[in-house]
Structures are given as C-alpha cells and as structure tokens.
Amino acid sequence: EAQVTQNPRYLITVTGKKLTVTCSQNMNHEYMSWYRQDPGLGLRQIYYSMNVEVTDKGDVPEGYKVSRKEKRNFPLILESPSPNQTSLYFCASSLNANRGQGIYNEQFFGPGTRLTVL
Amino acid sequence: GIQVEQSPPDLILQEGANSTLRCNFSDSVNNLQWFHQNPWGQLINLFYIPSGTKQNGRLSATTVATERYSLLYISSSQTTDSGVYFCAGSQNSGGSNYKLTFGKGTLLTVNP
Known about the structure:
The complex is a heterodimer of chains A (118) and B (112). Chain A has 118 residues and is an all-beta fold. Chain A has no helices and 13 strands.
C-alpha cells in the first residue's frame, strides 16, 4: 500500500531532551516536507527537500533540523525541544513529475505526530 | 505568498442534506487539493484538482483556475462526513518549493 508513515504517533517529552520524528514514504517521491499545525495558525511549513541531500527552510524552521540521506526517509530532529514546539506535525511527500502543463505534485500526508513538550 | 480564503467557516447540516464549500485564492495556483481532516487529526486526500471537475462518490469538486476559486460539493451528507475540510494550493515558486498554503478550513458537523 502506497503511504507515508510517521513515528511516533504520540509523544510526550520534557524540555531539552533531543528527539527525532521519523517519516518514510514508499512511493519513490522526490519531494518531502514537514508541516506543523497549530490552532488559529493552520498548517505551516517547517522544512522541505527536493531530493536526496537537498533540503531547505520553510516558514518556521527555528528549532528544527532535517536530513535526507535516502530518498524514502526524511526525519525531523528537535535538538532541544521547548514547550512552544508542542504541536501536531505532518510529513508529506509528492512525486513532482512534469505532466503536460506544469508540475504534478499532489501531496500525500502522513498520519501526524502529536508532540507535547513539558 | 498566496492567501487562501474558505467559506463558510462553520456549517451544520442534517443527515441527507447537500452542501457547497468554497475556496478563493489571492493568486494563481498550479496545484490545488482538497482534504478532509477527521476527528483523529488525519488529513485525507479528497481531490487533486488544478482545474476542471472531478467526482468521487457523493463528493465532487470544481476548480475555475482563471477565476481563482474552487468548490467542493457534498451530497446526501452522512455523519461520517463531519470534520474539517481544507483546501490548499501551491505555486511553482522560484525556489521550487511546492509548499502547500492551506485555508483555515470549514468545520462541518452532520447531525443524525
């Protein structure tokens, strides 16, 4: 089954304790991205990756790191989590194929990770 | 960046009723999607619809790209349709970041 998976789905941690949220897709997609969703602020992009070893900042990258060593994986790293990073996190991927008019990039989202930082 | 406006913000229906949700964009988008966020928080892809009309069961969507809006139609609504409906669009920006910009969503409640 084609899908985007995230782990863990739920995490409660304490300030300053490094954590990693994994993201994996089995669709051979080039583009991957992380978003966070907060009440009243909607979904905002954290980081994105156009391909292996190619990553760049989104709108709210502070306090996060990413890496893209393999095409299928795009982990999100919080080196020193703080309470303002409590949020619902989504990983997404898209094929980014040129199909006729423009780039086809329907994005598929993982199930989300609810993170609470105390 | 583009602005996405959804209407109505809230909608309460009786089971069996029909509804239309609207999404307006401040600028042209090359990729437009509709999602349903269920009560567990999962974002479910409904339609990828940069232009034209698509149908999937009781749901259909129409995008008029030249006028920068999209409509989602729900017919014969069921309680399981409850949740938040988002539209989102992206542009092929200079940095090739296909960031999706989401609207604030329409909270749909379908009562039995």
